[in-house]
Amino acid sequence: MKPEFRNASDSFRRINPHLFTQVTHDIEALAAAGDKSAAFKKLCSQPGKPLRQRTKQPSRAELEFIALLEARFPENMILHEKIAFRLANGVTYWPDVIVVHPRLSFVKAYEVKGKRRKDSAWARDDSRVKLKMAPTAYPWIQWALVWKDEAGNWQEQVITA
Q1: pLDDT at res. 1
Q2: Which three-class secondary structure state does DSSP give residue 99?
Q3: Do 78 and 24 fall within a single domain?
Q4: Residue 15 host element (H or E)
Q5: Domain of 121?
Q6: Has this prediction a pTM greater than 0.70?
Q7: 88 and 104 in contact (C-beta within 8 Å)?
Q8: In sequence order, which residues have a C-beta less than 8 Å from that of residue 53 and are 6 or more positions away?
Q9: Coil vs helix vs strand at 148
Q10: Predicted pLDDT at 67
Q11: Cα separation of 51 and 133, whole Å?
Q12: d(CA 44, CA 23)
């Protein structure tokens, strides 16, 4: 349930537009009704650039993997780049997909890459370092790297500290 801010100042409203728009309430209603894919699509199709918020759209590989997770685990909450993790010296890591199982208190973070070929690099160096640092900083979260192989099948590598 979202708090109501009846006496909010104009500056507070400018900094937090997501608290005062009808689109946000529509998304929450869709998610509460169990239609997670419609809520996710509506969230990604919001027009305009939000103030002080990330606006990265999911890649095709990320959308395919999210659809796979929604089909495999319909009761879980699936988030796309919604949580930032502080690692060290001001370094921030945004996993592509985070899966939260509400009843088991289970959290798993995924880094999604496209097709991985033998002769090409699959990630930039900073992405590799962040993914290797994350399990040490947050050991209660399971971390995984997923990618599509040349046959189009999803492969998963669990990252440990």
Answers
A1: 47
A2: strand
A3: no
A4: helix 10-15
A5: 56-161
A6: no
A7: no
A8: 18
A9: strand
A10: 93
A11: 30
A12: 11
pLDDT per residue as tens, the chain (161 positions): 456 667 778 777 777 776 766 555 555 665 666 665 655 555 555 555 554 555 677 888 889 999 999 998 888 888 888 888 898 888 888 899 999 987 777 899 999 987 766 644 456 667 788 888 999 999 999 999 998 888 888 888 998 87
36-44 vs 22-32: helix crossing angle, rounded to 10: 160
Of 130, 142, 63, 139, the closest CA to residue 101 belongs to: 142
Q: Which residues contact 62 (CB under 8 A, 6 or more apart)?
A: 80, 96, 97, 112
Regarding whether 123 and 77 lie in a shared domain, the answer is: yes
127 burial via Cβ count (<10 Å: 0-12, 13-18, 19+): middle
**50-84 burial string, b = 16+ CB within 10 Å, else e?**
eeeeeeeebeebbbbbbeebeeeeeebebbbeeee
Where residue 91 sits, what CATH number does that domain have? 3.40.1350.10
If asked whether residues 95 and 138 sit together in one domain, one would say: yes
Tokens of 6: 């009846």
Structure token pair of residue 39 = 């809520």
